[in-house]
């Protein structure tokens, strides 16, 4: 059966390449593709049947979901893969939430309607100044005082399950939706609370928006009138003595700052490590400290950086003078570390050994949390993988990054005024995907401006899903 389906799709794609400009067929999106007929767009299924007549100006990509936004003239709606409408084209704006079965539609942003895309039914419709969103199986209905960025108080949010049943309401604005059982809510007085999935407050009165990372909330500062240093999860609250605390805690230890200015290396003996109970297990003898990875952490002491083990002892004899600024701190928690030496930048592993015999002119930016972007001595842009191997090297004027769960990680490089995809997970100089400008639209898909000024939805290999009229 699969062979027959593949043959049918190949034959249909062959027809596509022989079609005229007025009657074209575009790249397959699973079992459906967009076709063009006399300047309008429709949908065709894998058997060659038209499931949506060509009458639309824009059909956005389906991606991994079963729904796509369509536009007819100035009005938008939502169509399913079988060509039936979940939402008719009657709205000025429509928003989909990846992985969820809901759409938010409106003519006036202050008056929104939430649709269930499986049934096409209106699930919720709000009054004045109500905004809907959907994440991780929850629906959020925020009522706010005035439109702004962020929304202006007073706030109230009702939280619903995926069937539209009210779970609880709270007087606040979710600045971090639920993840691993906890969320962060901003109150009208600009303080922040951490709450659980029943709406119970775990920690209240935080004076600023805390860091949320890997299902945990990290906070140090005033909370409910007291100075506290906290790591909050759905299961427990770790409290330590300090003025800042950082993860990740994948190996059970947290870096804690006990004095000075938060996150600054302005004095000696201000960073140490605590365990999951909050007890200090490596004394604060460092000027800066980062998270443990593979049993080793980067610290700064006496003006130099080096690696320590879980007992606090130095690993090897290698020291160096440079580490990334706060924007690049995640680099120090990767398996391979870029370090600044007198002659340039080198790459070392967590044992303090060089992983490649090359000196780079620039280093320090992360790429998709798995690659390092560097510049070699000749000015070429290089990508190093998690083992320190150089997987891409090329002369590009500028670069931007894009990562998709299904389609892999890629680097876009600008050469001679044009952007092109130059790297996807080990492959180089891919054909197609050459454009004047582009923005990520969804996993593996771009909203691209071509050299002639036309705009299309295009994948990373240059296959066009649909034009935009």
List the helices and strands and how they pair.
Elements: H1 2-18, E1 25-29, E2 32-37, E3 40-45, E4 50-56, E5 58-59, E6 67-72, E7 75-80, E8 85-91, E9 93-96, E10 102-108, E11 111-116, E12 121-125, E13 130-135, E14 138-143, E15 156-160, E16 166-170, E17 173-179, E18 182-186, E19 192-196, E20 201-206, E21 211-213, E22 216-223, E23 226-232, E24 237-239, E25 244-246, E26 254-257, E27 271-274, E28 280-286, E29 288-289, E30 297-301, E31 304-308, E32 337-341, E33 344-348, E34 362-367, E35 371-375, E36 381-384, E37 390-394, E38 398-404, E39 408-415, E40 418-424, E41 427-428, E42 434-435, E43 437-442, E44 445-449, E45 455-459, E46 464-467
Antiparallel strand pairs: 1-2, 2-3, 3-4, 5-6, 6-7, 7-8, 9-10, 10-11, 11-12, 13-14, 14-15, 15-16, 17-18, 18-19, 19-20, 21-22, 22-23, 23-24, 25-26, 26-27, 27-28, 29-30, 30-31, 32-33, 34-35, 35-36, 36-37, 38-39, 39-40, 40-41, 40-42, 43-44, 44-45, 45-46
Describe this structure in words.
The chain is mainly β and about 475 residues long. It has a domain at about 395-469: Thrombin, subunit H, CATH 2.40.10. It is built from 1 helix and 46 strands. The strands form 12 sheets. Strands 38, 39, 40, 41 and 42 form a 5-stranded antiparallel beta sheet that branches. The chain has a 4-stranded antiparallel beta sheet with strand order 1-2-3-4. A 4-stranded antiparallel beta sheet has the order 5-6-7-8, with no helix packed on it. A hairpin with a 4-residue loop joins strand 45 and strand 46 (about 465). The longest helix has 17 residues, at about 1-20. It is flat. The two termini are about 35 Å apart.
């Amino acid at each position: 059966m699969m062979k027959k389906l593949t043959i049918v799709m190949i034959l249909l794609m062959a027809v596509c390449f022989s079609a005229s400009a007025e009657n074209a067929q575009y790249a397959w999106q699973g079992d459906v593709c967009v076709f063009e007929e006399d300047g309008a767009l429709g949908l065709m299924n894998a058997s060659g049947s038209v499931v949506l007549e060509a009458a639309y100006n824009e059909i956005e990509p389906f991606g991994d979901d079963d729904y796509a936004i369509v536009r007819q003239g100035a009005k938008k709606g939502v169509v399913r893969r079988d060509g039936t409408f979940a939402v008719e084209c009657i709205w000025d704006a429509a928003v989909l939430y990846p992985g969820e079965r809901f759409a938010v539609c409106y003519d006036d942003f202050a008056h929104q309607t939430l649709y269930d895309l499986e049934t096409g039914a209106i699930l919720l419709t709000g009054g004045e100044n109500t905004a809907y969103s959907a994440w991780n199986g929850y629906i959020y209905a925020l009522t706010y005082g005035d439109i702004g960025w962020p929304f202006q108080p007073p706030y109230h949010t009702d939280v619903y399950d995926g069937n539209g049943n009210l779970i609880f309401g709270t007087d606040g604005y979710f600045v971090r939706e639920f993840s691993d059982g906890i969320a962060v809510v901003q109150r009208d007085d600009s303080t922040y609370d951490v709450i659980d999935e029943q709406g119970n407050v775990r920690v209240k009165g935080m004076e600023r928006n805390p860091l949320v990372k890997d299902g945990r909330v990290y906070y140090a500062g005033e909370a409910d009138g007291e100075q506290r240093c906290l790591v909050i999860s759905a299961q427990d609250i770790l409290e330590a003595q300090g003025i800042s605390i950082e993860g990740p805690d994948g190996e059970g230890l947290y870096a804690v700052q006990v004095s000075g200015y938060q996150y600054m290396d302005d004095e000696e003996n201000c960073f140490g490590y605590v365990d999951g109970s909050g007890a200090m297990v490596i004394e604060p003898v460092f000027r800066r400290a980062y998270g443990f990875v593979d049993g080793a952490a980067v610290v700064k002491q006496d003006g130099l950086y080096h690696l320590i083990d879980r007992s606090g002892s130095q690993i090897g004899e290698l020291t160096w003078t440079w580490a990334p600024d706060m924007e690049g701190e995640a680099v120090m928690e990767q398996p391979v570390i870029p370090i600044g030496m007198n002659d340039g930048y080198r790459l070392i592993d967590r044992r303090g050994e060089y992983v490649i015999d090359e000196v780079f002119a620039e280093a320090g930016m992360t790429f998709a949390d798995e690659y390092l972007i560097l510049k070699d001595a000749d000015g070429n842009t290089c990508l190093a993988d998690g083992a320190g191997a150089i997987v891409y090297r090329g002369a590009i004027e500028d670069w931007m990054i894009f990562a998709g769960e299904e389609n892999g990680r890629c680097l876009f490089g600008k050469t001679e005024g044009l952007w092109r995809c130059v790297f996807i997970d080990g492959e180089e100089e891919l054909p197609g995907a050459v454009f004047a400008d582009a923005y990520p639209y969804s996993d593996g898909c771009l909203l691209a401006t071509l050299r002639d000024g036309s705009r299309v939805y295009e994948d990373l290999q240059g296959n066009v899903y649909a034009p935009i009229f």
